[in-house]
UniProtKB/TrEMBL annotation:
The keyword Acetylation does not apply. Belongs to the peptidase S33 family. This is Alpha/beta hydrolase. SUPFAM superfamilies: alpha/beta-Hydrolases. Pfam families: Abhydrolase_1, Abhydrolase_4. Residues 430-526 form the Peptidase S33 tripeptidyl aminopeptidase-like C-terminal domain. Residues 132-285 form the AB hydrolase-1 domain.
Length: 564
């Protein structure tokens, strides 16, 4: 789950408001004028027609385009699933297309169904089953048919758009009346742009609609129950799926948990604390430990002071052209410690650039600038932008978070709350003034009951203590308010997205629960994995490594590049 600061719309070619294949039938027009009894029959008949679809599965990956990968990668199959644009009126006659995927069980005669979702909300999920291949989850792949989906509105499914509206790059720490009003106006303009450009479909891009898509996939796949593996905002979706369809909920695993028993507004209010804690307690001490490598300070306090000095000196001529971008880049690396070396190297090179420029060594400064731009581009590709690529996915993020649950924020409250958050948690706290949801034209009739866990099978929640994007306070609150939840805490860890990320303790407990229904003991913990060592012989740039939480297909392309 990304904070608003990272939800930058794509530049270049805009994605169409609704992808090709949206159909309007005469049946839908006739149903609109029918009586209640006739409408009920028409709705049931429409659902039956969707359930009767025969999916045409095909290989997702082309061996010619991506040769040399292990055979299991080519087993992933993709198909197009048709769903009604509005599940409240399935007979309405407007279809949307959903890209779905499956990785069939390698051995089981009666495999379970595991649905996976990477979060966002809005991140592409059709590639996510490949994570099980790259992480060698052999027992899981043997016992489950593993499914993924690009959710409605984004990725390879029918798209929505906000018309390419861009985040404002004005520094949110600047608090003059003119600056504050400019930032609020920009957030309001984003909300209006989304409403004008994409409302035909975006009003139906909500969790209540998406979980109906998932259950349609379950029915077509022929499974009575769905096992669930949701990361980040995928925990929100999973909790609401189980609440809506408790009789079809199987073994549910929620990894890096949104406070799914509350509202999106409350969940996001915890993020400034989470990112600041990760920055101060994990990143800064690690950089200080390697002062001989990076030269940014031998204590955490000195490292933080170095960052603030660098931030204050960003100009349009610098390799990182503004302070907002620098905040985004560094905050983006807080998701995974494997990105720490590239973040620290970027800051060290930026420091070298400023020193060389100040001393008149312009050729040296240019060399440092080139290194900064290269490392920042890699971080943005592998640590941030890859998760939300283009206008469609970032538009889904806004549609879901702005429409699922009400927002009470106003211009005045945003100014006050962002100032308080900025004072205490400056890394991203000030930027919380940028909140289009405060100005969103929320559609009527979005029904999303608060999950309680009542009548739902037990849920395994996995959570690191220093997760930046979904802080542990929210996970603990959700666990306390969701009947039957079991929280597995990962100590000495701050990575966002833990399963299949190299922690054998987490992997074993999650596999055991999905496959056998065995929950860890109450209060169980796992230890986090080791921090990277930039001085190790053969240490690889973090941006060249597959990172949990990014698009697995990009990781595969990186692997293919390394192999060849």
């Amino acid at each position: 789950m990304l904070p608003r600061a990272f939800r930058r719309a794509g530049t270049g070619v805009l994605i169409s408001a609704v992808a090709g294949g949206v159909l309007l039938s005469a049946t839908g027009e006739a149903a609109a004028t029918a009586g209640p009894s006739s409408r009920k029959k028409a709705a049931a008949a429409a659902v039956d027609r969707y359930d009767a679809q025969k999916l045409r599965w095909r290989a997702c990956l082309d061996r010619d385009e991506m040769p040399g990968l292990p055979d299991d990668y080519y087993r992933l199959e993709c198909a197009t699933l048709l769903a009604p644009r509005d599940w409240n009126v399935p007979e309405g006659g407007v279809d949307i297309r959903l890209k779905v995927s499956r990785l069939k069980s390698t051995t089981a005669t009666k495999p379970g169904m595991l649905f996976t979702n990477p979060g966002g909300p809005g991140a592409d999920g059709a590639d996510l089953p490949l994570l099980m291949v790259s992480a060698r989850r052999k027992k899981l792949m043997a016992g489950q048919d593993i499914y993924g989906m690009d959710v409605r509105g984004g990725g390879g499914s029918s798209n929505i758009t906000c018309g390419g509206a861009q985040n404002l790059t004005a520094d949110p720490r600047l608090r003059s009346d003119a600056s504050v009003n400019l930032q609020l106006d920009a957030a309001e303009l984003t909300a209006r742009a989304c409403d004008v450009a994409g409302r035909e479909l975006s009003q139906y891009v909500t969790t209540p609609q998406t979980i109906q898509d998932v259950d349609l996939l379950r029915r077509i796949a022929g499974h009575d129950r769905v096992n669930w593996l949701g990361f980040s905002a995928g925990t929100w979706m999973g909790a609401h799926y189980a609440t809506r369809f408790p009789e079809h909920a199987g073994h549910l695993v929620f990894d890096s948990n949104v406070e799914f028993t509350s509202t999106w507004e409350n969940a996001f209010s915890r993020q400034p604390l989470g990112f600041q804690r990760r920055f101060e307690q994990d990143f800064a001490p690690w950089v200080a430990k390697y002062h001989s490598v990076y030269g940014l300070g031998s204590t955490p306090q000195a490292v933080i002071a170095s960052y603030e000095k660098l931030r204050a000196r960003m100009t349009p001529d610098a390799p990182v052209q503004d302070a907002v971008t620098l905040d985004d880049v560094i905050a983006g690396t807080m998701y995974a410690k494997v990105l720490f070396p590239d973040a620290a190297a970027s800051l060290a090179d930026l420091n070298g650039y400023l020193r060389a420029q100040g001393s008149g060594k312009f050729r040296t400064a240019d060399q440092y600038a080139a290194k900064v731009r290269k490392s920042v581009a890699l971080i943005q590709r592998d640590g941030m932008s890859n998760t939300f690529s283009g206008d469609a996915n970032s538009s889904v993020f806004l549609a879901v978070t702005c429409q699922d649950t009400p927002w009470n924020a106003s211009r005045g409250s945003l100014v006050k709350s962002s100032a308080e958050a900025g004072k205490n948690y400056p890394l991203i706290g000030w930027s919380t003034i940028d909140q289009p949801c405060a100005f969103w034209n929320r559609p009527a009739g979005v029904d999303l009951p608060t999950p309680t866990g009542h009548g739902v099978p037990p849920v395994l929640m996995v959570q690191s203590v220093n997760d930046p994007a979904t802080p542990i306070e929210g996970a603990r609150a959700a666990a306390a308010n969701f009947e039957g939840a079991r929280l597995l805490t990962v100590t000495g860890e701050g990575d966002h997205g833990l399963y299949a990320g190299g922690n054998s303790c987490v992997d074993k407990k999650v596999d055991d629960f999905i496959l056998n229904g065995k929950l860890p003991a109450a209060g169980a913990t796992c230890k986090g994995t080791a921090m990277p060592d930039p001085t190790a012989v053969g240490a690889m740039s973090a941006a060249r490594l597959p990172v949990r939480g990014t698009n697995p297909l990009l990781a595969l392309r990186q692997i293919s590049e390394l192999v060849h």
